[in-house]
Amino acid sequence: MPNKATLEVNNQKYDFPLFVGTENEVAIDVKALRAATGGVTTIDPGYKNTGSCLSDITFLDGEKGILRYRGYSIEELAEKADFLEVVYLLIFGELPNAEQLDKFHTDIKLKSVVDDDIKKIIDAFPKSAHPMGVLSSLTSALTAFNPSSVNVDSEAEMYNAIIKILGKFPVLVAWTLRKQQGLPLDYGDNSLGYVQNILKMMFCKPNENYVENKIVLEALNKLLILHADHEQNCSTSTVRIVGSSHAGLFASISAGISALWGPLHGGANQAVLEMLEAIKQDGGDTKKYMAKAKDKQDPFRLMGFGHRVYKNFDPRAKIIKAEADKVLADLGVEDPILGIAKGLEQEALNDPYFVDRKLYPNVDFYSGIIYRAMNIPVEMFTVMFALGRLPGWIAQWREMRLRKEPIGRPRQVYTGENLRAFVDLNKR
Ligand code: SDX
After folding, report:
1. CB of residue 150 inside a 6 A radius of ligand 1
2. Which of 21, 132, 356, 357 is surrounded by the fewest CB atoms within 10 Å?
3. Using 50, 70 and 90 to split pLDDT, how confident is the model at 41?
4. How far is the CA of 300 from the centre of ligand 1 (A)?
5. Pocket perturbation via mutation, ligand 1, pick of 58, 305, 389 by most ligand atoms within 8 A of CB
């Protein structure tokens, strides 16, 4: 393959180098475009054809339905790894040995106490506040109690910021849930594993001994791994661009939470359950909702379907669908919603509208069915997505800062009024 691309603009030819990644992805390096052409830029709403960075963290192939973290397949990691191992892998690039993992967890536990004054902030929220709004606010508030920027030239300071957010974020997630349920805000138990402790902080009751449910523990471990990173998705790109101004890690993560909240992104897992519930209340008439999804005059979309990158099955959806069957059976939960979801999937997989547009179930289509079986309220589903995505956000932020990447500042093409003179008020 030639190692350059040639562009012709105004009868002038320009050569630009091709960059080829380790999985043979090819990109035209246009860093010199504007200078070489005297001001010509590109335009690409939604960045559907534009790479924002080079990254060593996650590889996905949308056509083949491949997802790997630091070279390890999502299938192997979901089956064999512990979430904290995957956290370490994403951030530092290698699976930890037993000693490294133990030290990492110990360091995180030492930083997992959240300043008690944060409770005053959470008390100020109405019980009706959406948990994603609460979590984003509390995460941003952590900045007030910790240094706002991170000196990335100091490995120790960078590591300190990372273990702080890994220690405190699960507490904020648990407090967000418990506040809504009118339960006391307390801490977990440092004798437990990372995911074990998350579940205990979320579900322990003040008047009874906490009993761990192994099925729920294994399911949450798998779900958190499946959500841990996904290269340059909307919320991760947000974390990177906010961090590129050298805003602190906590402020950047808080921005990522807000981006994830949207129903076109992580908020879809809540929207899927609400959609399936509506279909159930409507007598299970999936054909009516399929017609709505295809009707261009109707804003309704089949939530949990379609993806910017996957034009084949989302590999995570396959794993989560199988896990939903297993968890509901193991828990003895009969949920008609699962049947409705599978019916919708079958109809869509045989409908030309969806087949032609390569619309398949994505990570959000089945995940909420498992969260519901775990007694997690529907408005907490996207909070659980954020809990899983935290290590990916950290890893991507760290990579961007360590590489000293420039502040993110896209160009535009102006289409407004040309120069005109001011008109006095009495003449308008
Ligand atoms: C996540 O990017 C990531 O990696 C995200 C994520 C991650 O891990 O970070 O994977 C997590 O956000 C998953 C996606 C969750 N969102 C949803 O499930 C919401 C429903 N899906 C859609 O809104 C949509 O599919 C998107 C937002 C996911 C992707 O949108 P694109 O890539 O901008 O595609 P598009 O809107 O241009 O759609 C192409 C065509 C259009 O029809 P035409 O104009 O060609 O006729 O497909 C149609 C769309 O109308 N379409 C849908 C549809 N999704 C796309 N039609 C009905 N139902 C849908 N769900």
Report:
1. no
2. 356
3. very high
4. 12
5. 305
Catalytic choice (105, 227, 230, 364): 364
230 lines ligand 1 (CB under 6 A): yes
Checking if the pLDDT of 147 tops 80, the result is no
Residue nearest (by alpha carbon) to ligand 1 atom 27: 264
For 69, counting Cβ atoms within 10 Å of its Cβ (0-12 exposed, 13-18 middle, 19+ buried), the class is buried
Comparing CA positions, the residue from 299, 319, 298 lying closest to residue 361 is 319
* Mean pLDDT for the stretch of residues 27-56: 97
Q: From CA 9, how far away is CA 40, in angstroms rounded?
A: 9
Q: What is the pTM of this model?
A: 0.97
pLDDT in tens, 381-408: 999 999 999 999 999 999 999 999 999 9
Angle at which helices 214-226 and 363-373 pack, to 10 degrees?
160
Please indicate whether residue 70, judged by its CB atom, sits closer than 6 Å to ligand 1. Answer: no
CB 303 less than 6 A from any atom of ligand 1 = yes
What is the arrangement of strands in the sheet containing 12-20, beginning at the earlier edge strand? 4-9, 12-20, 26-28
227 annotated active-site: no
- According to DSSP, the residues that pair with 13 across neighbouring strands are 8
Cβ proximity of 252 and 236 under 8 Å = no
Ligand 1 centre distance from Cα of residue 423 (Å): 45
Please state the rounded mean pLDDT for residues 300-314: 94
Q: Ligand 1 pocket, 359 CB below 6 A?
A: yes
Residue 126 has pLDDT above 90, yes or no: yes
Alpha-carbon distance 135 to 176, whole Å? 7
pLDDT tens-digit map of 133-144: 999 999 999 988
Nearest CA to ligand 1 atom 16: 264
How many Å apart are CA 261 and CA 270, to the nearest integer?
10
E runs forming strands in 70-169:
72-73
Are the C-beta atoms of 383 and 223 separated by less than 8 Å?
A: no
Question: By alpha-carbon position, which residue is closest to atom 26 of ligand 1?
Answer: 307
352-376 pLDDT, tens digit per residue, is 999 999 999 999 999 999 999 999 9
* Residue appearing with tokens 């562009």: 7
Mean pLDDT throughout 169-184? Answer: 96
Q: How confident is the model at residue 148 (pLDDT cuts 50, 70, 90)?
A: low
Mean pLDDT of 243-250: 95
- Residue 62's identity, in one-letter code, is G
